Amino acid sequence: MIHPTETNDDKTTSRRQFMKTTATLAGGAMAIGTLASPPAVHAAGDDLLKVGLIGCGGRGSGAAKQALLADKNVKLTAMADAFEDRLTSSLKTLSADEELAGKLDVPPERQFVGFDAYEQVLATDVDVVLLTTPPQFRPIHLQGAVQAGKHIFAEKPVAVDAPGVRSVLESCAEAKRKQLSVVSGLCLRYDAGFRETVSRLHDGAIGDIHTLLANDYRGKIWVKPRQTDWTDMHWQMRNWYYFTWLSGDFNVEQHVHYLDVCAWILNGYPVKAIGMGGRQVRTDAMYGNIYDHHSVTYEYENGARIFSNTRQQADCANDSAAYARGSKGSAKVSERRLEITTESTWEFKDKVKNMYQVEHDELFAGIRQGQPLNNGEYMAKSTLLAIMGRMATYTGQEVTWDQALNSQQDLSPKQYAWGSAPEIEIAIPGITKLI
Known about the structure:
α1 packs parallel to α5 (138-147), α6 packs antiparallel against α13 (376-395) and α11 packs across α13. It contains 14 helices and 17 strands.
C-alpha cells in the first residue's frame, strides 16, 4: 500500500491505465486479487447489505453514517482513502458513534490506502459503495463500481471536465441496464421542502419562468499549509479544493447545488453561456489555481436565463439561494427560506427529515424493493452545467452546450503517483484557450 509519506515513483498509474483497469474489473484476476462475482441485486427481505466507503474525509464519514442508519441490516465492511490518517480518523469517529453500534466490521485487512485503494474495496463482497473522494476520481470510481456490480452513492460533482462527464453518462446508462442504483449527492433534490416548492413551480405557480438568479456568496474555507515532507502531489491532494484538476474550481464543487436547482426548475439545460471571473483575494500560491469569484449568464433556447454569481471572500455578505421570476410572480428557493409570491405569499414551513439522510433512505429502500434509483443523467448534466460556466469564465469566450459536452480538455495528470503533480496554471480570460 502507498502511504502518505511515500514517494516511490514506481507505484504510478496513468488515467489511461485506470480506465483500462476498471473496464476489466468484472473480468477476473487482478494484481490485487480476484474480483468476487457481482452481488445479486437485493430486493425484498432482510439480507445483510455490506457497504464500502471510498473517500474518508468529513463528507465520506457523514455519508457512511447516513448509509448505516438507512437500513436495519447494513454494515460498513471496507474502507479506502489515498491517505492512511484520513481512513484511521474516519473509522475512529464512526466507531465512537453510539448510533452505529454493531454496524462496523472493518478489520485491517479491509482498510485500503493509496490511489488503487478503490479497486481493493471493489474486489470485496460489498453490495453498496459510497464514492466521496475529490471529484477528479468520480468518473473512474463510478466506472469501476458499475463494472463490479455495486450499487452506488456518488457525491457531487461527478466530474471536473467533459471527458469525465461523458464517462459518467456511459457508466450510469450501463448501471441502468444492470439494474444498479446510482444516487446523487445533489442533496437539495432530496429535501421535502425543495421538492414541494419546485413541484408548485412546475405546476405554474408563478407562470412562465423567464429568469433565475443563482447566488453562492460564501466566506473563506480551510487551507492546509504545506509540510516539509510533502511532495507536490501530496500538497495538491491535501489541498484538493484549490486545484481545478481535482475539484473543478469552487463554482463546480459547491455551486453545482444551486445550478442544479435552476436546471431542475427549468426542466432542462441551456444552449450557451458567457461570463467573467478571477482571483481578487485568494492570490497566494497556497490557493492553487482556482478563482475566488465567477459570474455567468446562461441562456436557454426559449430565451430564459440563469444569472449565476459566486464568491468566496472573507468578511463579505453571504447568500446561497436561487431566485425565480415568472410571468405571474416570483420565488425564493433556499435552505433558509422557501416561498412563492404572487398576489399572496406561500411559504413552506413544515419540519422535514434531513436531506442527507433521505438520500440514503431512498437509496436503500430502492435496493430492498428491487426498484433501483438512477440519478445519473441529471447529476452528470448539472455537473457539465457548472463546468460550462467555468469554461466561460476561464477563457472569456461564449461557450455553447455542445462545445462544453464535446470538449477534449482532460484535466487529469499524466500519472497518479506521490511525486510530481500537474503544473499550476492560472487561467487568464482572453488568453486561455477554449479546448
